[in-house]
Structure formats: structure tokens, C-alpha cells
Amino acid sequence: MSKTEIVVVGAGIAGLTSAAILSKLGLSVTLIESHTQSGGCAGTFKRKRYIFDVGATQVAGLEEGGIHSKIFKFLDIPLPEASILNPACIVDLKDGSKPIPIWYDKDEWIKEREMQFPGSRQFWQLCNLIHQSNWTFANNNPVLPVKNYWDFLQLLTALVPTNLVTGILIRSTIFDLLRFCGLSNNERLIKFLNLQLKLYSQEDVYNTAALYGSTVLQMCQKPHGLWHLKKSMQTLSDALEDSLKKRGVNIVFGQKVNSINFDYEKKSWKVCASSKQEKMVYFADDVIYTPPPQSLLKHLENPLDNNYNYKKRIQSLPDPSGALVFYSALKKEHIKVISSNHYQFVSNELGSLFVSISEEGDGRAPKGEITLIASLFTKTNDWFSLDKHDYIKKKKEYLQKISMALENQFDIASENWLHKELATPLGFERWTNRPNGIVGGLGQNPDIFGLFGLSSRTPFKGLWLCGDSIYPGEGTAGVSQSAVMVARQILASKGINDFYL
């Protein structure tokens, strides 16, 4: 048994960041991770001579003033080497029109979208207005949703006048903005927006909260931008992990949390974990829980039984998506000339495929070769309900379907693949320990986003949620912002109210 001030469950970006901030400020922290490495959905794995990013393949927030930049500056560690993505992505709607490059330069993107979507200027201007208001608000360190007086004060001091204007849209969707701008029948624009929003909000135009969607649609442009990390996505978590090790933080890999309960005799949280070799018990004043909140139904069984309303809230959360991810490699000469690391295109049979292609010299493949990762959303129940024979058969079918779609899109001959494999939600569950292998957080619809979402502050004093299901949402930048918020809440509970990045 060991006692610490903070136990952090999960060494993804959210867990690493919250542990790094709190340990930097002098609190004793133990970080528990079920996998043998950090990173979670933003980690990597190796096959032969290739390094593949498990899930996330691009990063926001590395620019000056971005969330990763501010965190790394606070921790006094260098940012990983990265290059701006320009264009951030090329979207091919497969409708006979020119593919759509999403440019980093604002003026270039304005020209592009006016050419691609005539008559849509008012919609984009409205999105930009909302985004600017959101960005100022986010930089003022709000706490959402509000659960007590301290949270309310943080929200109140973060508000700016424009928030009072855009706040009237709190229950609106992106489709409501389109309708307001007379674009509700613009099928091509809606098709494009659906592809982009599904990536970042897990919802379409009809269900994505306007206040959330407006910001994610602006994140590719200067002064923000999306970034390609050199070597791999793992460099982000490696930097945070190294920072923790230098301060002597206890990082425990290969231990799966079995239960979390409050010990009334010790007046501490009791976290029981186990590996193949041993069982461990950790006691802490506070627990930061970074897995999906659905996992609480297994880990927090006894406390939840005593709080029916909270248990019902967790049980009623909408089902998140799973993903099929195609990992492959080939010689650079065997794919048509590409002008972006990221593509998104439509397949009549598969729907939307998001493709990430490595750069020469970024460490993911030997010289003259590239890695290519393609992903699409899938319903998790479609995979976990299969017997072994049907599962293997379906997996092979999808491997072939995705291979053929990529061969047609990028002029690849089928015999030129050097490596290819497919990960399903079952594989993601084994790798990340996320229930049913779900990816991303909760769909950012008006009933979930912001004031109406799950709070990091649970009904159980000292137990905190953090990660892609908590404000402001998914992605490495989103979960890092979540980690900063929960760190501020914990520090305030200990009488430290002056922590800001």
C-alpha cells in the first residue's frame, strides 16, 4: 500500500498533463497506466520498420499562445519538433468538383471557400465571430459546467461582452447557422461540413453545437493551425513523461485499475489495481480519472450504487463511435504525387475515410517509403456481437474494401503494399482499455457541450473527471485544456487560487 496526495488514472495526454502540472506545483502524484507505455489514443506502435500513430495523427495548440505551448512553457520543457500543416487537409467530396484544400493562411482559405461554396460568406463570417468570442473566453480560464460557487466565479470572470451575444446560440446547431444564412439547402456545403465535423465533434451539422462547431471549423487557420509532429505522436507524451520522471513522480505501467472506493477509516480514496504479477492498493486525497466516464460503471461500483442519479446520468450517456483503422506502408514512388499529409474523401461503400500520410524524414518509415493510415467510424456493437468466425471474415472484408478504396484514390497497385493491417474496436479496447474500444469523447451536441456536459467535479468529493468527455472536448488540445481546468479546481480545493498558465 502507498499513500499520495493525487492518484491519476490513465497516462494519456490528459493524465500526463494533469500529473505534470500538479507535481510541478509540489503535490505528490502517482500515475497508473494499464498499458506498458504512455500516450493512450495519441500513442504509437511499431511494425517491422514502421512506426504508426495509434489514433490521433495531428495536433493543435503548438502555436504561441496555444494550450500545449503554454503548458510546456509552464513545465519548462521544449516543445516537440513539428511543422505546420498547409493545407491542413484536402477534402475530396467525389462529386466531380475540384477537391477542397483547407489552407493555413486565412486569406487563401477565404478565397478557396468562396470559390468552392459561392454565397456562403455570411455563414463563415458568423462562424468566425463565434470562434473569436469562444477563443477569448477559453483563454480567460473558465470552468464548465458550473457545480459550485468557485466554478461560477471562474465562469463569471472569463466572460466578455461578445459571449453575452453568442450565448443566445447555446442551444443552436451548425445547421441553425446555415438556416439563418439561407444555406439550409446547400447540399455540397453540408456534405463538406459533415465530413469535417464528424472528425472533431462526432456529430453532423444537424447535431453539432454551434458554439463548438464554429471553433473547430476555424482551427486550421493562422494564428492557430494543425501540426505534424516529427518522429511520431508519441513525442508529445514522451516529453510530458520525461518531465514527470525528472520530478520523481511515481509512474506505474502495466497495472489495470479494478476498483475505486472511498475508505472512511483512512479518509482517503482507495484505488485497487493489479498486474499479472501483483495486486496494489493506492490511497490518495484526490483521484483524477481520465478514462471515458462510462468506465466508472465498472470502477466506481459501490459509490455509484449510493448515488442513483449520477449512475443514471453515466448510464444514459449517448453511445460514442468506434473506428476501423487501416495501417499500411509502401514506397513513395508507388503512390501518386501528394500535396498534403492529410486527405478526407468519400467512398460510396464506406462513407468518409480520413487519411494520414507520413513525411520524408519524419521517422515513421525508412527513406523512400511512407506510412499511410486511413480511418473510418463504425458502430462498436457491429463488432462485439460477432462470433470469432464472423469477426475474422468481416475484418478481412473491410481490409479489402479499404485497400481498394485507397488504391483507386491514390493510384496504388494492389501488389505494391509493403504492409497492411486493420484495427477494429476490439483491438482498440485491448490497446487503450477504453470500453468497447470507443474513440474520441462524447458527441458535441447542444445537450452535451459546455454548460450541459459532464463536469470534472463529480458528486464524490476528491474524485475528478478529466479527458475527452469533459469540457472543452476531444483532441490533444481539448484534453490538455481539461487537465488545466481540473488542476485549477484541485488546487482551489486546497486553498491555492492563483494558478494560471
UniProtKB/TrEMBL annotation:
Enumerate the Pfam families for this protein.
Amino_oxidase (PF01593)
Domain Amine oxidase positions: 13-491
One GO BP = carotenoid metabolic process
Superkingdom assignment? Bacteria
Which InterPro entries does UniProt cross-reference here? Answer: Amino_oxidase (IPR002937), CrtISO-like (IPR045892), FAD/NAD-bd_sf (IPR036188), Myxoxanthophyll_desat_CrtD (IPR014104)
Gene Ontology MF: a single term: oxidoreductase activity
Q: What is this protein called?
A: Amine oxidase domain-containing protein
